[in-house]
Amino acid sequence: MIKLTLANTKAINYACMNYHYARRVPVVALAYNVYYDGNWCGVICYGWGANRFIASSYNKWNGQVLELVRVALNGKQKTTSECLSATLREIKNDAPCVDLIVSYADLDQEHKGIIYQATNWIYTGLTNEGGRGNFIIHGKKVHPRSVHSKNWKESVEWLKENVDKNVKLEMSKGKHKYLFPLNKKTKKQLEKLSVPYPK
């Protein structure tokens, strides 16, 4: 049986750093502790996302749209999609002004968005294909946001001169974009954007 509680900063930090491949803590607006049969499984986090135009692109105002920014679970849950569905139902109570949830499945991580397909999200296609991906610094993939957080310039030339003379920049395969409307009006508005799920 799934139980949710609101997650504090300590729980968010621990789950994101220990249970998620990115090993980074995003900016979070709302997060839930996930318990399954009494065991703490981690957190599912929602935030405003990196795109400041995320709301206006759907004719919404800031505050009406959240991005699913982390699913940081340890595997003790029965199914991840069931946990995700539970948080989507809870958001309607905890953030009644929110009309829409947006999320991305990163092709660079070989993700296709299976949990979104299992929970009936609207798929709108691939974004950022061929865009800037990760930097390869000292042989390791480093996200541009992590480069920025170290006060380094997001520039191959600068990084070669100051950090690693062999630095490279990968081009992104893109991200699959999914939408989850929280009411019938928004669902009707966005269904026209739907395309078949990637296989």
Task: Describe the 3D structure.
By secondary structure, the chain is an alpha+beta fold. It has two domains: 2-130 and 174-193, Gcn5-related N-acetyltransferase (GNAT) (Aminopeptidase, 3-Layer(aba) Sandwich); 132-171, no CATH class. Helix content is 26%, strand content 32%. The chain is built from six helices and ten strands. The chain has helices at 9-19, 80-94, 114-118, 144-149, 156-162, 184-190, and strands at 2-6, 30-36, 39-47, 65-73, 100-106, 122-127, 132-137, 140-142, 168-171, 175-181. Strands 1-2-3-4-5-10-6 form a seven-stranded mixed β-sheet. The mean pLDDT is 92.
Order of helices and strands: EHEEEHEHEEEHHEEH
User: How many individual β-strands?
Assistant: 10
Strand content: 25-35%
User: At the third CATH level, what is the topology name of the largest domain?
Assistant: Aminopeptidase
Secondary structure tally, helices: 6
Q: Please name the CATH architecture of the largest domain.
A: 3-Layer(aba) Sandwich
Provide the spatial order of strands within the biggest beta sheet.
1-2-3-4-5-10-6
**CATH class category of the largest domain:** Alpha Beta
Please identify the structural class as seen in this structure: alpha+beta
Give the termini distance in whole angstroms.
30 Å
pLDDT < 50 runs, ≥5 residues: none
Helix content: 25-40%
The average pLDDT value, as a whole number, equals 92
Shape, principal axes of CA atoms: globular
* CATH-defined superfamily of the largest domain: Gcn5-related N-acetyltransferase (GNAT)
